């Protein structure tokens, strides 16, 4: 007498009755879709990821370099994957930061509509963006350096719906102007008409995650240059993913503090010092070099990234936001 078989509803392969799960794909046999099953699967899958996240959280925060070392050693199921860790924490950070950025966008729009100058004292990145708006005057609109025009004349042309080309001429744009310079005039006029600097600021903030997508591999490449004879690039990338996950976690906590009460400047300095010390210890533990070698290469990596790569990225993000908004 032969054994009875049943067919898996997921992979449609047959197997002997008596199995609780399909031996081919792992789906539960005779799994009837009910509301309880639906929510149980959703919650169990969610918390299975969370369980690994919380198991990884303590080493990430308090054992620099530990997760990266374990991952490259082959222990890749005990802790959250570096890419998952980075993506999860970065999403949390940008979600929390959206509350601050929304407030800043509204503040910029309100300030521009009242012809006042915004004052931001606790965030250097925001200050760099807002500084570009500080040369707006009530009687005459002036963009320092190469661009200046009479506000009343331009307002009169806008009021009569004059063609943009005529307004550009009133702004001082020459007939044989190049493409890039003309694009600047186009964006300046667009900005002037709308008085909506918040959109520019919002576009800048929106470009940060995209910039980080390119900055992280660049950081890993800097480490590769410093340890070019030692390990493959993928190892540096794993290290970088965990390190930036830590950085975003610290920034998330800082944003939470900022949402509750405005922190003093010494907290920002403390955070910078904390990240620097963490990075040095992580390099020391992951790359297994002596303390002096690790200190020197940590300094070179951070110096190259913070003082060379990040400023260029900010400029490109600002230009992208300016031309795309």
TrEMBL record:
Signal peptide: none annotated. Pfam families: DUF3667. The chain crosses the membrane at residues 77-100, 208-227, 239-261, 267-287, 299-324. Keywords: Membrane, Transmembrane, Transmembrane helix. This is DUF3667 domain-containing protein. It comes from Aestuariibaculum sediminum.
């Amino acid at each position: 007498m032969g054994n009875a078989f049943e067919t898996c509803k997921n992979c449609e392969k047959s197997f002997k009755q008596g199995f609780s799960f399909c031996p081919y794909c792992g789906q539960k046999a005779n799994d009837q879709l009910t509301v309880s099953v639906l929510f149980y699967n959703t919650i169990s899958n969610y918390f299975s990821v969370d369980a690994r996240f919380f198991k990884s959280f303590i080493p990430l925060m308090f054992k620099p370099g530990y997760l990266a070392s374990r991952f490259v050693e082959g222990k890749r199921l005990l802790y959250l994957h570096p890419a998952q860790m980075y993506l999860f924490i970065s999403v949390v950070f940008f979600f929390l930061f959206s509350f601050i950025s929304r407030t800043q966008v509204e503040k910029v729009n309100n300030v521009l509509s009242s012809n006042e100058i915004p004052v931001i004292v606790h965030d250097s990145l925001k200050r760099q963006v807002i500084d570009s708006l500080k040369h707006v005057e009530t009687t005459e609109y002036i963009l320092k350096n190469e661009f200046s025009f009479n506000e009343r004349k331009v307002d009169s042309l806008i009021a009569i719906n004059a063609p943009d080309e005529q307004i550009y001429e009133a702004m001082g744009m020459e007939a044989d102007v190049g493409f890039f310079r003309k694009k600047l005039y186009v964006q300046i006029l667009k900005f002037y008409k709308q008085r909506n600097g918040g959109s520019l600021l919002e576009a800048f903030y929106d470009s940060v995650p995209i910039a980080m997508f390119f900055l992280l591999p660049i950081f890993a490449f800097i480490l590769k240059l410093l340890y070019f004879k030692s390990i493959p690039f993928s190892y540096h990338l794993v290290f970088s993913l965990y390190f930036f996950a830590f950085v975003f976690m610290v920034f998330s906590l800082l944003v939470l503090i900022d949402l509750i009460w405005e922190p003093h400047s010494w907290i920002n300095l403390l955070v910078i010092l904390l990240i620097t010390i963490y990075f040095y210890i992580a390099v020391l533990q992951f790359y297994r070099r002596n303390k002096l070698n690790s200190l020197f290469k940590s300094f070179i990596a951070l110096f190259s990234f913070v003082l060379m790569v990040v400023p260029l990225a900010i400029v490109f993000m600002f230009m992208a936001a300016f031309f795309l908004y």
